[in-house]
Amino acid sequence: MKVAVLTSGGDSPAMNAAIRAITRVGIHHNCEIFGVFGGFQGILNQQYHELNSRSVSRILHRGGTMLTTGRSEEFKTEEGLKKAAKFLKDQQFDALIAIGGDGTMHGLDALSKHWDGWLIGLPGTIDNDLYGTDYTIGFDTAINNALDALDKIRDTAEAFQRVFLVEVMGRKAGFIAFHVGIATGASAILMPETKTTIEELADVVTKAKEKSKTSVLVVVAEGDELGNAHVIANALGKRIKEEIRVSVLGYIQRGGNPTHFDRYLATRLGAYAIECLLEGKQGGMVGEMHGELKMTPFKDTWTHKKPLDQWMLGLLDELSGISSTD
Ligand code: F6P
After folding, report:
1. Do both 34 and 85 map to the same domain?
2. Ligand 1 centre from 126 Cα, in Å?
3. Which residues partner with 36 through β-bridges?
4. Beta carbons within 10 angstroms of residue 314's beta carbon
5. Nearest to 163 by CA among 212, 197, 214
6. Which domain does 207 fall in, by range?
7. Does residue 42 share a domain with residue 19?
8. What's 183-221 look like in SS3?
9. Catalytic residue among 102, 127, 129, 140
10. How far, in Å, CA of 274 to CA of 267, rounded?
């Protein structure tokens, strides 16, 4: 079986671990594995070469992606899709495995209408916003990166007894903000999944101060409906008549050595993708739900919404101590 593999969209830590597992397990089962460079655009530009076991040495511990990535506008067009399908057909590829986020799953779904080869997606995004897997590859590393940064911000916030708004990534989803906010004891977490007004936020911050909190951390998801952290800080500052400090963590969240969790998940899903191909299972994204390996049709990965942990969500005020009567 001749298999192409690519990474697309925002890179995420442990994409490399997935590429390594796909390559080595694939070769073990007599597949020929070809790496495509620069995401879907790499198919259109015919930038690819065959991988062997040694090509994927010394990448397991590295962030980023050895195949490089991209977001291709050309691939989204009818002509682009037809061109990609022709190339894959002409080069006699049997299958394509793409690692990425929801844009990647959209791309695979669109390609399936033009090419009759086998298609499999792997969830590679720090945002964790794909249905069909409890966790996406890279999410754990990103939240640990953010956690590390927030712990440091907490030190300086305490020294000055300041209010800090810290913006994290996540696109339209609040998974990063939610997990990091819980793990750093944030007084409030602003996310697209929950609606909070400036008045409510001001109330939380005031209460936290009344409870003699030495610092107040608010975690803001970049996709929050109130706007970005600077906009929110401005409005909040005016309301509570205090200068608010802002820190936007940005791309630091996406880099660095992947955690054990991400390397293990990526390796497991990469190996499973090959197993699926060998068994003739295709047309969806592989993932792990409640410890079990699954394949979910591409469309379901973005049309079904993965919820935040509702029970933990309900505990936020209790955990931050704001609702306590002592
Ligand atoms: O989807 C991953 C992600 O890091 C988002 O959290 C963020 O909004 C976006 O990518 C940034 O994209 P770019 O790398 O194109 O700036």
Report:
1. yes
2. 9
3. 48
4. 9
5. 214
6. 142-254
7. yes
8. HHCCCEEECCCCCCCHHHHHHHHHHHHHCCCCCEEEEEE
9. 127
10. 11
pTM > 0.90: yes
Token pair in block for residue 257: 């050595």
DSSP for 45-75, written as a single string: TT-EEEE-GGGGTT-TT-SS-TT-----SGG
Residues 114 and 191 in one domain: no
**Reported confidence tier of residue 161, pLDDT bands at 50, 70, 90:** very high
Residue 15 belongs to domain with CATH number:
3.40.50.450
The answer on pLDDT for 326 being more than 80 is no
Statement to judge: residues 103 and 146 lie in one domain = no
Tally of structural domains, the chain = 2
For atom 16 of ligand 1, the residue with the nearest CA is 10
| Amino acid sitting at position 204 | V
Residue for token pair 């440091």:
152
Is position 322 within any domain? no
Q: Is 127 known to be catalytic?
A: yes
Residue 325 belongs to some domain of the structure = no
The rounded Å distance from CA 157 to ligand 1 centre is: 27
Query: What is residue 192's predicted lDDT score, i.e. its pLDDT?
Result: 97
Atom of ligand 1 nearest to the CA of 251: 4
Last residue of a domain, one of 219, 254, 289: 254
Q: Is there a domain that residue 317 lies in?
A: no
Q: Which residues line ligand 1 (CB under 6 A)?
A: 10, 101, 125-127, 169-171, 222, 254
Residue 323 placed within a domain: no
pLDDT at 220: 98
Q: Say which CATH number the domain at 214 has.
A: 3.40.50.460
Half-sphere exposure (CA, 13 Å, Cβ side) for 156?
10
